[in-house]
Amino acid sequence: MKKLKGLFLFGLATLSVACSNDNDSSANAFSCESDIPFVQTGRSFDLELFQLGAVVQLYTISVGECDGQGFDVQRLTRNAAGVAVGTVQSKIRINNGYVEGFSPQTGITQRIFKKNAAVGDVWEDIGISGGTIRQQIIDLDSIITVPAGTFSCVVTKYDDESQLGTSYMFYNAQVGQVLQDAGFYELRLTDHN
To answer: How far apart are CA 70 and CA 108, in angstroms?
Structure first.
């Protein structure tokens, strides 16, 4: 369960922001230009963690300024009653057509969204637990309804060899992550700007 929570929290920390770059991921500087609508300074996203028939946690993801290494991202975690219980800082950037989440604390980079994706596209990264994460685009136009509304989404099948089960990530090109369905929990978008 701890590993599953790690996947979930890394995904949250890296949700919906990026920088643009034509270089490979080993480059030291990234452009702060973004042509992805949900990857912009000032954007924010509210999500709820729904598990066993109830909302158990709330999250607000805020996109800050870009410093050449990526956009600053802050994730505020609140309990179901709305009381703040912690924050996590990370970075997001665009690299070779992918939105990448990057943790300066761990040095781990994970691709979370592919611009101009096609069904069957596959990529692999090393996750926070050290296992291989394999993601595959399985649909380009899935209609998903969450508390924030109804969206057309690209669907990514997400498998982490160090964890049980498969997650399905639903991204809208304008809004970012709309839903994560892991079978035993859902992370659902409730609001965005």
So the answer is: 13
Contact by Cβ (8 Å): 56, 50 = yes
Q: 166, 144, 170: which is closest to 155 by C-alpha?
A: 170
Instruction: Give the ranges where 110-159 is alpha helix by DSSP (H).
Output: none
Kindly state the percentage of the chain with pLDDT values over 90.
65
Give me the DSSP letters along 147-172. Answer: TTEEEEEEEEEEEETTSSSEEEEEEE
Q: Which helix (H) or strand (E) holds 9?
A: helix 2-13
Structure tokens at 106: 């761990």
Contact criterion met (CB below 8 Å) for 100 and 18: yes
Q: What are phi and psi of 4, to 5 degrees?
A: -65, -40
The pLDDT tens digits of the residues spanning 142-193 come to: 999 999 999 999 999 999 988 888 999 999 999 999 999 999 999 999 999 9
Is the Cβ–Cβ distance between 100 and 92 less than 8 Å?
Answer: yes
C-alpha 75: how far from chain center: 11
pTM for the model: 0.83
Beta carbons of 94 and 36 less than 8 angstroms apart: yes
Name the amino acid, one letter, at 34: S
Helices and strands of the chain, counted as H and E runs: 1, 12
Task: Give residue 29's pLDDT.
Answer: 65
